[in-house]
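Morning!

This is the sequence you dropped in the shared folder:
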Amino acid sequence: MHLKRFLACAMSIIMMGGAVLAGPTEAQAAKGAATAGIASVSMKRQEISGSIGLNRRANLAKERDDSEVREILGIDDEDMEWLKKIAKDDSTEKRIKKNTAKREDIVQFALSFVGKIPYVYGGDSLETGVDCSGFVQQVFKHFGVDLPRTSGEQGSTGESISFDEIRPGDLIYYGGHIAIYIGDGQVVHASNRKTGIKVSIWNYRSVRSIRNVLK
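The structure's back. Tokens below.
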């Protein structure tokens, strides 16, 4: 009898332990879900606040309709409100203005070479001649921005963006060729030996990627 009672007690303890190990309580599950939700929001905001992308996204929040921004960035109403608060912050406003001014300076500097210097394959001199990536590299170097030498490397540096987000000073990579976006649907680039530095429509050839390399 004693042995039977002992075995029965042992089985009860094992079964109770199994129930405990089977899963968390409702309270624990709710807490876990809430933590996961917070982590998800946190990760999304970290993504939005990337070192290169925050100014651009805050600028979008200032210039575009809320529904359009939500669609472009893939964010919900809560994150949209958070982004709008960031956009209204004085320090963000200063960064946006500084970034915009720098972009305008880059565009004007690049345009100053249209028709002035020849296309030279492998060239990287704004005095004697450049190829497409040499032109981009030297223009940005003038403003303290270091970029890789080849078009392929430049076409994968910085942040990948869509045309909805493009701003003057962004790079458009065509696969084996690269150009600087100047606004109004146009780019400036070192085209070829015949035409040199010229302005073209942004999608005059198939676009592989658009890159933001300015913080």
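Headline: Residues 26-48 form the longest helix (23 residues).

More detail when I'm at my desk.
O.
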